[in-house]
């Protein structure tokens, strides 16, 4: 029996060490992407993956006076050949937004031989949901990343406004916001109450169900903060469950700060939503979902 316990312990330790090693040597996202594609093209399951560049934008995201390249690519399986960029993202496709340093860069407008200093994946899969925008503010270029997530009575909303330092994956942040909130009384007596630390920054404390709150003023303030950036931005990509948009050579697309609250806004009201009507929708949702009447 002792040797069996020892063998189990060694096995568990081996798995932990293997996991940590894998995390430590994962490398850059482009290498991970290549490895995943190679694994998915085995003899047992010969899936063929394709790559297409759907858009290129210029912006000085390193703030060094040289225009950098923002390249949007979609990777998709062979059976989705012939679909539009939007359809690919709503299917099995994955979008990579890559930023190339503008110094000594370009070959022919589509293929790039420079340094990729930042990259992020977007798709219809929940962990890769989100939006990315290009913002010009006071003559400087920035990226705006936004992610909204709600599940089982809880919501988590984040945004980040930043530029790039010129080194791989390093950013200079000028604004961020995080909002986590209980969306309904779904878990019995112990509910989580939101407490504001600062506008756009929130954390949880445990309170009884009787004292739980849906902090409408803080939700509005968060939306207003985010909207100050989005209203002057162009949308590069938007991915959510069942819905995706992407800026291409042929088409632009748009999104608004209000869309994170689509679950509480009636369809007929979405085209004309304002901060005031959003507040009314939140108040109605609060009354109905929290049984205040």
Keywords:
293 residues; alpha+beta; six-stranded antiparallel sheet; 37% strand; four-stranded antiparallel sheet; globular; disordered N terminus; 5 helices; 12 strands
**What's the overall geometry?**
globular
Query: Treating each run of at least 4 consecutive H or I residues as one helix, how many helices?
Result: 5
Unreliably modeled segments: 1-29, 186-212
Quaternary structure type: single chain
Explain this structure to me?
The N terminus is likely disordered. 26% of the residues are buried. With 293 residues, this protein is an alpha+beta fold. A six-stranded antiparallel sheet has the order 8-7-6-5-11-12. A four-stranded antiparallel sheet has the order 1-2-3-4. It has a two-stranded antiparallel sheet with strand order 9-10. The N and C termini lie far apart (63 Å). It is built from five helices and twelve strands.
Topology of this structure?
Elements lengths: L1 H23 L4 H11 L9 E11 L8 E10 L7 H6 L3 E7 L15 E8 L6 E8 L2 E12 L2 E11 L6 E12 L7 E9 L2 E8 L7 H15 L2 E8 L2 E4 L28 H15 L4
Antiparallel strand pairs: 1-2, 2-3, 3-4, 5-6, 5-11, 6-7, 7-8, 9-10, 11-12
Helix pairs in contact: 4-5
Compose a concise summary of this entry:
By secondary structure, the chain is of the alpha+beta class. The chain has helices at residues 2-24, 29-39, 85-90, 216-230, 275-289, and strands at residues 49-59, 68-77, 94-100, 116-123, 130-137, 140-151, 154-164, 171-182, 190-198, 201-208, 233-240, 243-246. It is 24% helix and 37% strand.
